[in-house]
Amino acid sequence: MTPGMTDTRAMPTYADVIEAARRLEGHAIRTPVLQSDAADALLGAQVFFKCENLQRTGSFKFRGAYNAVARLTTEQARRGVVTYSSGNHGQALALAARLHGVAATVVIPHDAPRSKIDAVKQHGATVISFDRYTQDRDAVVAEQVQRHGFVWVPPADHADVIAGQATAAQELLAVTGPLDALFICLGGGGLLAGCALVVTQQAPQCQLFGVEPEAGNDGQQSLRTGQRVRINTPRTIADGAQAVQLAEQTFPLILQRVRDVLTVSDAELVEGMRFLAQELKLIVEPTGCLSWAGALKDAPRLKGQRVGVILTGGNVDMNHYSALLAQASIPMSASNPTQGVPA
């Protein structure tokens, strides 16, 4: 948490996830779970893709943001909310705030995809830009809180955000039944920590894997050393996973339940994007492909298993997306049609 803005509430529990699911009913999309013969062949496993790129605002972030805003007191709602974001959480909080009649301000990197910045504005939020490589985003947010009295709603380090994100895994398991492995993208750790709550209760035998960019392996280092490791802002095309440290509230849940944190290169992310476009007909941003790229990298260990993959977002500038796909040079096999699993 940003200094001076600590969330003093207890750590989230599975009961909080159940309540979040009720709160989100009718507001969040119950996104589809898809299968692909080509994906199964590549992994030698049965693969289930939870398509959060088709969620409202284009990412799973809407779940946590909506749950957090819905939990504001009348006095907090009057003050308005603030966050920092590379784009997806900002969009989600902007829409969630608008739906509740709450003012929102989003501190966003100046080099974030223009499409994400524009979407934040379109949802009615005020945008304040900063340089992620030279400025301290915590300090920028803290100044806004001090000056205007905003309520701080971080992307991951918040009990209500974590509980809301967890509902993606809850929905996935409701469709698939127990899984042997589940792959989750890792930035600040909100989704991974929420999934830890769910699999512990619903699929205790399931091995949980976080996946982050090679250039930003703070989560991997943290899990393996048993303490939160802080790094410099990584340079990677996975702009939604340019976190420098796991959040205070997410780390204990990750440390307790996550089997391992894997890393993938930018080139592997591009190949993952290409595969998902070709075989599942899905536009997925680089960060959203972390989970699938991680599963591909871990394929030898997954043979014969039932594997879940949460695709976390689809917000990408189309010119940039096209340019990245044009770089892809390793052909992915398969011409079999995608199959949907009824939700």
Strand content range: 15-25%
Order of helices and strands: HEHEHHEHEHEHEHEHEHHEHHHEHE
The CATH architecture of the largest domain: 3-Layer(aba) Sandwich
Which structural class best describes the helix and strand composition?
Answer: alpha/beta
| Average pLDDT rating | 91
Number of domains: 2
- Describe the largest sheet: 7 strands, mixed
Task: Report Rg.
Answer: 18 Å
- Helix amount: 40-55%
> What is the number of helices?
15
CATH class category label of the largest domain? Alpha Beta
Low-confidence stretches: 330-343
- Shape type: globular
CATH level-3 fold name of the largest domain: Rossmann fold
**End-to-end distance, in Å?**
36 Å
Q: How many beta-strand runs?
A: 11
Strand order of the largest sheet: 9-8-7-10-2-1-11
In short:
It contains 15 helices and eleven strands.
Question: Could you characterize the architecture of this molecule?
Answer:
Helix 3 (61-70) packs parallel to helix 5 (88-99), helix 3 packs across helix 8 and helix 5 runs parallel beside helix 6. Helices cover 44% and strands 16% of the residues. Strand 3, helix 5 and strand 4 (104-109) form a beta-alpha-beta unit. It has helices spanning 14-24, 37-43, 61-70, 74-79, 88-99, 114-122, 137-148, 159-176, 190-202, 218-225, 250-257, 266-279, 290-297, 299-302, 318-327, and strands at residues 33-36, 46-51, 81-84, 104-109, 126-130, 151-152, 181-185, 207-213, 260-264, 306-311, 338-341. Mean pLDDT is 91; it is low at 330-343. The chain is of the alpha/beta class and 343 residues long. The chain is globular, with a radius of gyration of 18 Å. It has two domains: 14-59 and 158-330, 3-Layer(aba) Sandwich (Rossmann fold), CATH 3.40.50.1100; 62-152, Rossmann fold (3-Layer(aba) Sandwich), CATH 3.40.50.1100.
